[in-house]
Amino acid sequence: MKSISSCSRVGHSVITKAIGYMSDDFENDYENITDNYKAKEGSLNERVTYMKALGFANQEMAKFPGLKHQDVFFQMIDLDKGQYGQPYMVSLFLHNQSRDERTVHITMVTNSIFYNGQKAHQIKIGEGLFVLQPYERETLTMTVPPEEYMPKTVEYCHFVNRFLVKIKETDQVWTGEDTFILDKPKLDLRVIPDTPRVMRMAKVSVRFANPLDVDLTRCTFTMEAPGVKVTAPKSKFRNVKAREKIEFDFEIIPTRAGQTTLVVTFNANELYNVSGSKKIIVIA
What we know:
The chain is mostly beta strands. The chain has two domains: about 45-185, Immunoglobulins (Immunoglobulin-like, Sandwich), CATH 2.60.40; about 190-280, Immunoglobulins (Immunoglobulin-like, Sandwich). Helix content is about 5%, strand content about 45%. The protein is built from two helices and 18 strands. The chain has helices at about 45-55, 145-150, and strands spanning about 15, 30, 70-75, 80-85, 90-95, 100-115, 120-130, 135-145, 160-165, 175-185, 190, 200-210, 220-225, 230, 235, 245-255, 260-265, 275-280. The protein has a five-stranded mixed β-sheet with strand order 4-10-9-6-7. A four-stranded antiparallel β-sheet has the order 11-12-16-14, with no helix packed on it. Strands 15-13-17-18 form a four-stranded antiparallel β-sheet, with no helix packed on it. β17 (about 260-265) and β18 form a beta hairpin.
């Protein structure tokens, strides 16, 4: 076996012996696995990594193209929070501060992410090429409707918008990232009586309003609470119409005195993990 290396092109390629393929010519008997270890050259992820790395090398930044002539200003329009079931916007403000035209190539991507920041699903991508006139200001917006993001939403409803912008005339490169959460509605819980007694029946009334413009199907309510016996801890419920307000009752029997917390969760095919909680004091 012959080993070949080149120190002049770091990260150019990572190869390994191809599985199930034998060749007398070692130059053809390999599989290129570079993309498994680093983002593809020129891709959005590669540019984001590149710019983040430069941010930690202050004295070296001026040596790289696009960092001397940054005459186009960029500003993300942060979302922070939105409402689940409503459209959200991916928006970027640009200002050409030069007396010359600037040709802009932009890529906007929105993804769902897990709570630890790892990518879950790509929801939508938009690309465009246009010219900014001298001193012109422009706001670019990509709308993401609920029917596009709902099937790709993961637990806790975290999302991230990423931007990559390249200026043709100056080689200026800009990247940005904005994480945000879409809030789901909360269940409203009411206990009757307010102060239940040990081994006495009580009622928990749950109120919920469907925030979506579609019907909810295969609906269920689930309840749990320490020190409380729930007559039917998981109950099926009829379909809920778009924007409909509903009410559902649980019957409970506290088994011990003291403080406890009731937790109710609503799930449907179109909307899941909608929850509500209420602390109660049980008396003997």
